[in-house]
Amino acid sequence: MRRLVAQTRLSAADLVLPVFVREGISEPVPIASMPGVVQHTRESLKAAAHEAVEAGIGGLMLFGVPSPEHKDAEGTWGTRPDGILNAALEDLRGELGEATVLMADLCLDEFTDHGHCGVLDDQGRVDNDATLQRYAEMAVAQARAGAHVVGPSGMMDGQVAVVREALDGASFTDVSVLAYTAKYASAYYGPFREAVGSSLQGDRKTYQQDPANATESLRELRLDLAEGADLVMVKPALPYLDVLRQVADLADVPVAAYQVSGEYSQIEAAAERGWLDRDVTVLESLTAIRRAGAQVVLTYYAVHAAGLLRRL
Ligand code: PBG
């Protein structure tokens, strides 16, 4: 009876697995603050991608971790075809074709030596419009490498319009833009910074949103839709379900939410101590995110949850 009348359903096809691929390693490297998650080699990423496709999940979101010598002020290796992220995209598109949706994180922070999401002006502040130019180049490079979807995550003003125009101008009209619409300056990204070996000095409060504010997310939504977003996303997920609900009520494109690294690590840490039942908590949190209005959920639990759902 509970199953018959359930208002919210969760299926593997709703889930997207974020994955990390690191340059210059010969074995996958575990991420200490995210037990069970690794930085992949290009080879191990291929195997993980096949496993994800077999589990029936909806897509993969790729993050690149370049070697320290491939970080500079402009994030040059983010746009080079032989940069780790673009090389791995090419690997996976060649390996998987259209078997799953390949998404690419479109941001400079992994590739800059200062760790910010954009290029800096002469006073060390992120230069919004100079950064847009780099995002345009990065979008085209990622599309060329095989991304079906690019996800501009840097929260620069005007990023969706610039990326859409660049893609269309290079004849990648079928490549979709997943807009990070409401992205909060969040402590929940803490473990991610270890995952990508971030060199960030300072914080991102001048370009990410204040957790105190909900209304500005609706303004961001309006702008992203007008600029041509194909999907819009709220991030983090569980602490921002109210924002997610408001965005979902107004958006006329699919809505995604990102259960971020800190949300994952919280569950893992408590489960390890026997304080939470991992599997029940995983399915409850993902169901809550779906209930609040997300059609698509990015989660490090994607493959694990797909396994749990098969057994229900
Ligand atoms: C920026 C980016 C971040 C995350 C995804 N894209 C970090 C940040 O904005 O500081 C965080 C994801 C997570 O915590 O799981 N490229």
Regarding quaternary structure, what we see is: single chain
**Shape summary:** globular
CATH topology: TIM Barrel
Strand content: 15-25%
Can you tell me the CATH superfamily?
Aldolase class I
Summed up, the helix count is 11
Q: How are strands sequenced across the largest beta sheet? A: 1-4-5-6-7-8-9-10
Poorly predicted segments: none
In angstroms, what separates the terminal alpha carbons? 14 Å
Order of helices and strands: HEEEHEHEHEHEHHEHEHHEH
- How many β strands by DSSP? 10
CATH architecture: Alpha-Beta Barrel
Question: Tell me about the biggest sheet?
Answer: 8 strands, parallel, barrel
| Tally of domains | 1
Bound molecules: ligand PBG
CATH class equals: Alpha Beta
Proportion of helical residues: 25-40%
Structural category is: alpha/beta
The residue-averaged pLDDT reads: 97
Subunit structure: Homooctamer.
Function: Catalyzes an early step in the biosynthesis of tetrapyrroles. Binds two molecules of 5-aminolevulinate per subunit, each at a distinct site, and catalyzes their condensation to form porphobilinogen.
Catalytic activity: 2 5-aminolevulinate = porphobilinogen + 2 H2O + H(+)
Pathway: Porphyrin-containing compound metabolism; protoporphyrin-IX biosynthesis; coproporphyrinogen-III from 5-aminolevulinate: step 1/4
